[in-house]
Input
Amino acid sequence: MGLPPCHPQRLLLLLLLCPVGAPFRICAFNLQRFATPKAAKAGVMDTLVKIISRCDIAVLQEVMDAKGQAMPALMNALHRSVGPESYTSLISPLLGHGSYQERYVFVYRSGRTRLLNSYMYLDENSDRPDVFAREPFIARFSLPSKVLPDLVLVPQHTVPKKAEAEIDALYDVFLDIRAHWGTEDIMFLGDFNADCGYVAKKRWGQIRLRREPGFHWLIGDTVDTTVRNNTNCAYDRIVVHGERCLRLVVPSSAKPFDFPTKFGLTEAEALEVSDHYPVEVELNSAPRVHWMASPALLPLVMLLGGLG
Output
């Protein structure tokens, strides 16, 4: 039996009610000491490819690729799986003090976004210079949205014992980006170490990124972003600023991705990949429709709904 005919009026009504285009997924993932030894494990690389290929932009932290071999291996594995021109990467210099250094890496889907600009935040605030152990490496990407054509991403992996100070200092980064590019639409994301003794609950009110209006914490304080069964900590976060960006967030899409359950891994197998879950959020290519906010559309909807 064939499908019933769809009247043009009803089709137009559906187009009005439903945004066109697949959501745009942004992820952040602490790869836990990702370097050549981890890149040599086929099972680990297979899982990383599955995780990253779910994302339009993946912001990777704790990439300790001093020799510059692990990330090319990961990109090659990604290209073999998804396609030779599917993803591109932007890699920061090695950041940190002493022997412990890591890179921030943006891996992005070439067909859905492009890099517009990037810069390294100068950690020279006169009130407290050198507050970041690993200063933010900031990137601006295009989005498939007429409402919000581009978005600034700020990755951050804090030092646990300095988590409170570093999260607070991200507000200074916000001010710097606003002065630098004149934009309000900014997403902060990564392993903030924002729980389990590193940030006391009574101190949240003193942290400007949490206290100042306009910042929306999409991953809540009670969410578990850790792989180990015996931990329950909201270390990894996504914070957005800008009303246009907030309007595009798909409801309930901001969450950890439980890759062990999804891919049928034991805890031991998952820990070979990372002790963190990735966190992710989806953005619509068009804003959510609020009929009360758009009364001019209501007569048209009623007219079209009554036709056919």
